[in-house]
Amino acid sequence: MRVNRNSRARSGAAVGLTVTALAAGLTTAAGPATAQPRSAPAVTWDCSAAYRIEQKLSTGTTWRMCWRHDAEAGIILEDISYQPPGETKPIKVLASARLGQIHVPYDDGKAEYDDLTGFGFGQGQVNLTAAECPGGTIKTVKVPGAFWSESENVKGLCTTTRSRGHAYRKLADDGSKVYQAQGKDLLVYGVNKVGWYEYMTEWRFQDDGTINMNVGATGSLAPGDYDAGDGRGWPIGNGSAAKATSHSHNVFWRLNFALDGSTKTKVEQYDSAVSAPTGPNEGPTNKTTRTKITKELAGDAKNMRWWRVVSGTGKNKDGHARSYEIVPGATQKYPGRAFTNNDIYFTEYKKCEQFASNNLGNCAAGAGKSVDKWVGGETLTHPITWVNVGFHHIARDEDQEPMPVHWQGFSIAPRDVTAMNPLTPAELADQNGIPRNQ
Ligand SMILES: [Cu+2]
User: Catalytic residue at 270?
Assistant: First the structure.
C-alpha cells in the first residue's frame, strides 16, 4: 500500500539509524523511520504532488519518480531515483523511461501497425478496477479523448508493492544462523487497449536497485485475423475453419539515463571469448574485453555480450564509477525492417527522436522516421538507449478467451552503484573487499 511518506522521506535515511534498523531486523517500514533525524538532505521534486510516486519498501529502499501521460506513449516515468539503506540521499538513475513503440507486422504482409503513434495507444489508457491493483493505489490519469472511458480522468495507474522471494541467503560462517531477506518490489503499471489487444505496461522497481520493464499482451485475438491470411495460421476453435494469422509484437523502450543526475553518460560493451585448454593440466580460458562505445551504435545481443551505461561523474563508496547494466530479455528479433533488425540502439539525444518507428517528433527533413536512421556516426555525449524486444505470436487454442498475458521485456541492474549489496545485514557490513582474517 502506498501511503504518504513525505514527511519521513524528506528526512532521508541516516546511516547510523539504518544500521540500527537493520540490526532490529527491519521488518517494518514504520517503526524505525519515525525516529529519523531532520538534518538529512531534503528531497527535491520536479513535479507536483499528484505526479509523484514515492515508495519506501519494507526492506528499507526508497524509490522516487515523477509520472506523466503522453498522448501516444502512454505513461512516461521521469526523474527516477533509488535510495537503498545506507545512502543518505537519492541516487538518480534515469531522466526518463518510456515505451518507444509497439510495432506489429503480420506474417502475410497485409498489415503492419505502429500501435503507439498510429493507433492511439495513449488514448487507449483504461480504467483499472480496485481488484487489479491489490494492496495499492490507483492514480487518476488525465487522458484527453480517452477511447475507453466516459471521463477523461482515467483511473489508470496502479502503484503497489509485491514480494519477489529471496533477496539473498547465507549460512553464517560458524553455521550458527541464516542471514536471509525476502525481497520487495514497487510495481507501477497501467493498461492500454489498442483494438482487441490490451497491453499491460509494467515497471518493477526492486529493493536491490534492479528495474524490470515488461509489456504484457492480453485482451483478445482480433477476430478479423481469423482468416489464415499467412496461409499457415494456427487453427483456433473447432476444426480448422478459423486460422489466426501469425504476427510479431516488437516492443521498444526508450531510456534516457541520468546517473548521479547527469545525462553525460558513457556506454561500454563487454564480450567474452572462451578458448580451448592450452595443455593437459589447463582448463578452458575465458577472456573478457571492454569496448568503449563512443559513437552511435546499432547493436546485437550475442552470447556473453553485454552493455552498461556508466556515470560520467558519480562513484560509489569504493571509488568505482556507478553504472547500470542492460540485461536482455528473451527476444525473437524480427528482421523485416531496419528498425527491428537490431536488439539495441544507442543514439545521441535529440528531442525530436521520440519513437523507434513512425516517429512523430518534428525532426529536420531527411532525418528519417525510425531509430535505425538516427545511428549516423555521431559521438555519444548524451546517449539514448533504445531496447527492442520481439515476440512472434503464433496463436494457440489457449489464446481464447481472454488471451493469457504474454510478457516480453528486459531489466537494468545496478553495477557498482553501491559499494556492497544494498541490503547487507549490519553483521556482514564489514565484509567488503579482501576477506577479513578469521
Ligand atoms: Cu499477438
Answer: no
